[in-house]
């Protein structure tokens, strides 16, 4: 298990139990305190989004209805960060609600609107999108 030397009370307690040592979690905590051993405290993760204070929230165009009869009429999108050995990559994708297929995607080492736009352009370029009947 790659831990980067971040063993704290919970992880040490679990490891001792795995090795067959019956030890109370409070004892592990006390012994660590007595020997000035501390687990690494992670810093709070910073937010990737910087909201515009003047911008209005985006309208809910599909009305929380995640079902579509006709392919290409309703899409939903998402962005996720993928950790790699060289840093993070960001994947934006668009999913067709009728077929549940990924119709467009884009991957880059930055987290910007351009990533989402490129994924949507890919979906449109495949020629499967239709206007919805709202």
Automatic annotation (TrEMBL):
In terms of SUPFAM superfamilies, this protein maps to: Ribonuclease H-like
> Any idea where the HTH-like domain is?
3-45
Domain of life of the native organism = Bacteria
Q: Name one GO molecular function term.
A: nucleic acid binding
Which is a GO BP term held by this UniProt record? DNA integration
Q: What region holds the Integrase catalytic domain?
A: 71-125
Annotated region Disordered: where? 41-60
InterPro entries recorded:
HTH-like_dom, Integrase_cat-core, RNaseH-like_sf, RNaseH_sf, Transposase_IS3/IS150/IS904
Record's function text: Involved in the transposition of the insertion sequence.
Q: What is this protein called?
A: HTH-like domain-containing protein
Taxonomic lineage is: Bacteria, Bacillati, Actinomycetota, Actinomycetes, Kitasatosporales
